[in-house]
Design brief:
about 190 residues; four-stranded antiparallel sheet; 8 helices; 8 strands; about 45% helix
């Protein structure tokens, strides 16, 4: 749990007493490689913070094509946020790419924690702001950058991910074919 405290304190300091209370809202869970955390159609109960492991969030369109929305590694958050905040069925899937440990936080627990500790409300607001900003950058990159620029941005933003994720998934995330990624990867 020290890892979670360090993560929170990147944004706001917490006392020992506050952290003792904060950690009561989280449930620890282990998931195996290839296990789904969320499947399309599931009711989404939690958002998840990764202690260790790598997860992939993706959407499957009506033609059966997979579109990767997000990767998540140690110290990152992941969920189907539309379903989580609106308490509806998921439209995305989240699968474990390697054995992982996560902390689960229900919406009720999140809201209670945020209402009782202003520091945590601030923390969650800052995390959502960063998520929104990151998603907006990605959309703009997909709309305006060529494959080489998208790859270079991905590599500079997330250097730790390049070695953890198979190239086929990185290609999917960038919206390029595997062969194009191989050419870009070899030229860097």
């Amino acid at each position: 749990m020290d890892q979670l405290r360090n993560h929170i304190e990147e944004i706001t300091p917490v006392s020992d007493e506050e952290f003792a209370y904060i950690k009561t809202f989280f449930t620890k869970k282990k998931i195996k490689k290839h296990q789904y955390l969320i499947q399309s159609g599931d009711k989404v109960q939690c958002e998840y913070w990764i202690i260790k492991g790598t997860l992939r969030a993706f959407y499957i369109n009506k033609d059966g094509k997979e579109h990767i929305l997000q990767f998540a590694i140690k110290n990152w958050w992941i969920s189907d946020y539309n379903a989580y905040f609106n308490q509806t069925e998921s439209t995305i899937n989240i699968v474990c790419m390697e054995d992982a440990e996560i902390l689960c936080l229900t919406l009720y627990a999140r809201e209670k924690l945020a209402s009782e500790l202003h520091k945590m409300e601030h923390f969650f607001r800052m995390k959502l702001t960063l998520l929104y900003s990151s998603q907006q950058k990605r959309i703009i990159s997909l709309l305006s950058d060529n494959p080489k620029e998208r790859y270079e941005k991905f590599a500079s933003y997330y250097p730790n991910i390049l070695q953890k994720i198979p190239k086929k998934y990185i290609a999917e995330y960038l919206g390029v074919c595997r062969e194009t990624l191989s050419r870009l990867y070899l030229n860097n």
